[in-house]
Amino acid sequence: MKVLFLSPHYPAEMLDFSRGLAEVGAQVYGVGDAPAHQLPASVKPYLHDYLQMPGLMRGDEALEPLLAMARRVGIDRVETLWEPLVMLAASLREGLGIPGMHRDVTLGFRDKPVMKARAVAGGVRVPRFARAASVSGVLEAAQTIGYPVVIKPVSGAGSADTWRVDDEAEAQARLETMGHVPEVSIEEFIEGDEFTYDGVAIEGEPVFESITQYHPPPLQARSQEWVSPAQITLRDPYIPATQPGIELGRQVLSALGMGTGFFHMEWFRTRSGEAVFGEIGSRNGGAKLMDAINFANDIDIYREWARAVCWHAFEATPRRQHHVVTVFKRAQGRGRITGVQGLEAVRQRAGDGLVLVDLLPVGHPRRNWKHTLMSDGYVTMRSVDYADVCEMRDVAVNRLKMFAE
After folding, report:
1. Architecture of the 128-188 domain
2. Taken in order 67, 69, 74, 77, is the CA torsion positive or negative?
3. What angle do CA 31, 33, 37 make, to 5 degrees?
4. 98-102, 272-276, 352-356 — which is least confidently predicted?
5. CB of 26 within 8 A of CB of 5?
6. Pick from 131, 195, 276, 363: most CB atoms within 10 A?
């Protein structure tokens, strides 16, 4: 099995997905825009070969050279889990005539208004929405939908350039910062708790499912620097409170024609308990979510994804014993990290439940919290008891502090 894997080294979790492919018996042909000598040492043993493609992010420019290379090598699968490259991967599959999701299906997981239109056609409850390529078009759509609305890029990933706006003046102010965004999706704002629905599907049928809750919802976390965003991956997604999200997710996968691979969906639970669709991508969730899934289920989700896309199999048995919380920290101040306070309190409260600590060291420049949820580091903890893991979260949120100057 020869697999062309686009961007085998970035984002960081792709290193483990590359490993997973190699461990299930694939010959991994990596393609990236970085020179081979700049690849992380940890990924090199898993790559059978590597091609530097400087124009990789310009899909049309990279398509023909990659098709020629793939035909010469005899590629069996084309995979990527990085959002900006999913359409290129689909074009390559189509051009090669090999299995996998082609352009029209993939578009439904990439273009948000198309996504929602297809979901509506499949009977899925979605926020009211529109798309616009001009300021006047956005304002007109927002007026029709009714404030508050959420504005975001049509083809965005994560919560970058995503804003809640409560009136026309605020909408105009936000749009002034989005001049680099060619087209905007305008959506009804849904009040409620926000969750993810993550998993692996084989020919559209989910063979693994997971639910994670955001604390607080991402729009709030990305608008207030003092917030320590947290997310709790539930040990058992099949409980009454989240079962509507599971059922909604399966309905969305069917409506959008999901094939084989990872999916990452965001959904809302309203005060009445209704599940409302947010958006979905044919990729994994970021921000250490894969590690949380592994810690919750005692599996290697990287390897099982690889087994699914290569061999249409999922062999792991999820143990579903632990709730897992990851808390992300933002240093107080500007400049370089000068100190960390409260880590010992986290260690004492979590005990053996503290499974990961990755905080920027003293002297390291702060990261831009607006550009990455990872912020200046994180801690990951787990427990068999939900109330216990919530208490761990609260200690990390309130007592763990980082400083910079």
Report:
1. 2-Layer Sandwich (3.30)
2. negative
3. 85
4. 272-276
5. no
6. 195
Under the banding of pLDDT at 50, 70 and 90, the label for residue 155 is: confident
Q: Which of 403, 365, 360 is nearest to 378 (CA)?
A: 360
Beta carbons of 334 and 405 less than 8 angstroms apart? yes
Q: What is the pTM of this model?
A: 0.90
Q: Which amino acid does the sequence have at 7?
A: S
Distance CA 57, CA 163 (A): 26
**Do residues 3 and 21 make contact, with C-beta atoms less than 8 angstroms apart?**
yes
Q: Is the peptide bond before 11 cis (omega within 30 degrees of 0)?
A: yes
CA torsion sign, 304 to 305 to 307 to 311?
positive
Q: Which of 357, 355, 309, 360 is nearest to 339 (CA)?
A: 360
Closest C-alpha among 170, 146, 234, 151 to residue 196: 234
For 2-99, CATH number out of 3.30.420.40, 3.40.50.20, 3.10.20.90, 3.40.50.2300 equals 3.40.50.20
- 290-338 pLDDT, tens per residue? 999 999 999 999 999 999 999 999 999 999 999 999 999 999 999 999 9
**How far is the CA of 117 from the CAs of 73, 93, 112, 113, 160, in angstroms?**
39, 25, 9, 6, 22
CA separation, residue 122 to residues 13, 146, 276, 283 (Å)? 32, 24, 14, 21
Q: Read off the pLDDT band of 129 (50, 70, 90).
A: confident
Q: In the predicted model, is pLDDT for residue 135 greater than 80?
A: yes
In the numeric block, the tokens 């995979």 are attached to 79
Counted residue by residue, the chain has a size of 405
CB 200 within 8 A of CB 284: no
pLDDT at 387: 98
Domain 192-320 has CATH 3.90.1200.10: no
The conformation of residue 201, written as its DSSP 8-state character, comes to E
Nearest to 287 by CA among 2, 11, 8: 11
